[in-house]
């Protein structure tokens, strides 16, 4: 094939590829821009579905209504505390369980039994009532631990970590064992540094799960002062006295539509800030050049 023909084909493919990816990116970005525009618009245009990508009758009233409530900052702090504790606990337990399960049955006696138990509890759940009774019996109602401990061991994440560590070259650990390293030393100094991509993945999964959870706060918290942010925002939308909020000099600026849009955007912001810092690990080479010969 002539070079000119090959170059023309490559150019056409490149242009088509960029066009396709640009359209896909625009489709992903459109809902975000729409939500932001609605949250910054007045109640009338938002209720009439006139807002598309640009705010109409720009106003910050929806955010003011949410932030002005006395319990907003408290619930925000609870969500931050829950997310920090939850991500730290999830990541630690996942890595501690995933590493030994990545070994063979000879290295870890009973490995198949452990795997069967993990798969079983991942597929079958006791249900809402037994879980609530367990949390109540343990005295965790209205406690931050009621939001953290029930999801402390994410089975799906453990399977991800286990499969990832299985793919790492055995020669690396064998060389460390020859030099006198123990399993703990190998895990800390070799496996974890090579596992940055999967660690970033499970951190992101855990962060999203804890930050977006609202139902468990509604169940395990009897006092609304202990609500995490998502539960608090849910109750704001569901309040029966929402009209009294709107009538407090906000009647022409706020309604359920703009409040919901503001709620969605507030919930989205932390994830939008976190993802760029973790994204590089998804595409980075893992063990290129780690094993020679």
Q: Can you tell me the CATH superfamily of the largest domain?
A: MetI-like
Provide the CATH topology of the largest domain.
Answer: MetI-like fold
If classified by CATH, what would the architecture of the largest domain be? Orthogonal Bundle
Task: Specify the helix fraction band.
Answer: over 70%
Distance between the termini: 37 Å
Order of helices and strands: HHHHHHHHHHHHHHH
Number of helical stretches of at least 4 residues: 15
How many domains make up the coordinates? 2
Mean pLDDT: 82
Query: Overall 3D geometry?
Result: flat
Low-confidence stretches: 240-244, 246-251, 285-293
Q: How would you sum up the major sheet? A: none
Strands, total number: 0
Q: Helix/strand/pairing class, anyone?
A: mainly alpha
Radius of gyration: 25 Å
- Fraction in beta strands: under 5%
Organism: Paenibacillus phyllosphaerae
Membrane topology: Multi-pass membrane protein
Main location: membrane
Pfam families: BPD_transp_1
